[in-house]
Specification:
alpha/beta, six-stranded mixed β-sheet
Length: 416
């Protein structure tokens, strides 16, 4: 059977540009893993006649239609009412969903308005998809080989519902026997285009696992997805493909799944028993904010000085006046002294510094995007890195912090 899938997002706020249709992106990725091809994305406002028109168009060209949004308690939440009318089926109360809604209002000591009961209505004869993070259940119904699936609009409800229940419905309904296993590889310090170029032949020649690159916030991820009846053999396929990829670009690899550079840095600092402090100029405390957002940060992070002016660099960090006069604040020499001084002043094992020109104007004759990061470890010679970054002021600052974490991770991995 040639399965043609269409995703219909319902909500006027999507058409008005008030929110981004991230649900469609998520579902397309999830459905691709299941082997379901998405042919169309449709967005329609909270209007019954336009939704009816969208359904009729979808029925002519697709045999799996997934709806997101419009399952709530308000008057403009009309998705299931409109679809039930199109299908000629009644709406009935799902007992479990209704009890869950009533229990929520009792526990929060709030009065449940009558329209909240509407969220427990489902299309008669549908397969119920439990909502573990909200009130309105999802549902799926198969009518003469045409599958309709209704999911809530809030991503915090829709995503876990589909992962925990929607995927299983499709696997069972469509008779998929293969286990589908995914693994996300994370890279930093290499652009998406360069990474793809370096492994293009692997991407072109690979069908199982499939390889999907994605770039965001200066990082690159690769999502590997393997299918096999034997889960152990699916994992083996992932291992083999990961090795082939990292034999080429492994120097930029830093972790798996949803980890971040700062989380990997924390793990290494804890493992090595090291403490760190920061001297920040252009980053304005951003590195410190990243560090202190972590659980247990007090065990590894001693503190920081945001030395935005030369006066603070000189008086608080003890950067030599002649360094600032001769080389300037945006210089290798200044970055080195900042890192060494913060390490000594805080009595930490590691000192890191950030100085540069974030823009929008050049600073001290240095072009926008010129950044120096220095790392001081004990009695070793300090490492100083010069970057030439492009982008907005915020983007330059964020990437500076990520590069700092990246360099620290590499250095800490070299310590026995």
């Amino acid at each position: 059977m040639n399965i043609r899938t269409e995703i219909i997002a319902v909500g006027s706020e999507l058409l008005l540009g008030q929110i981004v249709n991230s649900n469609a992106q998520f579902l397309s990725q999830e459905l691709a893993e299941l082997g379901l091809s998405v042919y169309y994305h449709t967005v329609v406002g909270d209007n019954p006649s336009r939704l009816e028109s969208a359904i009729n168009i979808a029925k002519e060209r697709s045999n799996v239609i997934i709806f997101t949004g419009g399952l709530g308690p308000t008057k403009d939440d009309l998705t299931k009412e409109t679809i039930s009318k199109e299908l000629g089926r009644e709406l009935t109360f799902d007992v479990d969903a209704l009890e869950s809604i009533e229990r929520y209002f009792n526990q929060t000591k709030r009065i449940m308005s009558e329209n909240n009961k509407k969220q427990a209505l489902v299309i008669d004869g549908s397969y119920i998809l439990k909502n573990d993070y909200g009130m309105a259940p999802g549902m799926a119904v198969d009518i003469d080989g045409m599958i309709y699936m209704l999911l809530p609009g809030p991503p915090s409800e829709m995503k876990p519902m589909f992962v925990n229940y929607g995927r299983e419905y499709f696997q069972t309904k469509l008779g998929f026997q293969d286990k589908i296993i995914s693994r996300v590889l994370r890279y930093f310090g290499i652009g998406e285009s360069q990474l793809e170029t370096d492994i293009q032949d692997i991407i072109d020649g690979q069908t199982n696992p499939t390889i999907a690159p994605l770039a965001a916030d200066g990082e690159v991820t690769l999502r590997l997805t393997a299918r096999h009846k034997d889960e152990h053999l699916a994992q083996k396929l992932l291992d083999e493909t990961e090795k082939r990829i990292n034999d080429r670009v492994g120097e930029f690899f830093y972790g798996y799944e949803q980890t971040t550079l700062v989380h990997e840095l924390k793990k290494l600092l804890m493992k090595k028993g090291k403490t760190i402090s920061a001297a920040e100029s252009l980053t304005g405390g951003m590195f410190s904010e990243y560090m202190t957002s972590l659980d247990g940060a007090s065990q590894i992070f001693k503190g920081s000085i945001v030395s935005y002016t030369n006066e603070v660099k000189e008086k608080m960090l003890k950067v030599q006046k002649r360094t600032l006069e001769q080389f300037g604040a945006v210089s290798e020499e200044c970055a080195r002294e900042m890192a060494e001084q913060i390490r000594k002043l805080s009595k930490s094992d590691i000192g890191i510094s950030f100085t540069g020109a974030a823009g929008p104007e050049p600073h001290e004759g240095q072009p926008v995007g010129t950044v120096f990061i220095a790392i001081s470890m004990g009695d070793q010679d300090s490492n100083v890195y010069k970057l030439n970054l492009a982008g907005s002021r915020k983007g330059i600052r964020v990437r500076s912090v990520k590069y700092g974490c990246h360099y620290l991770v590499k250095l800490l991995n070299e310590i026995e």
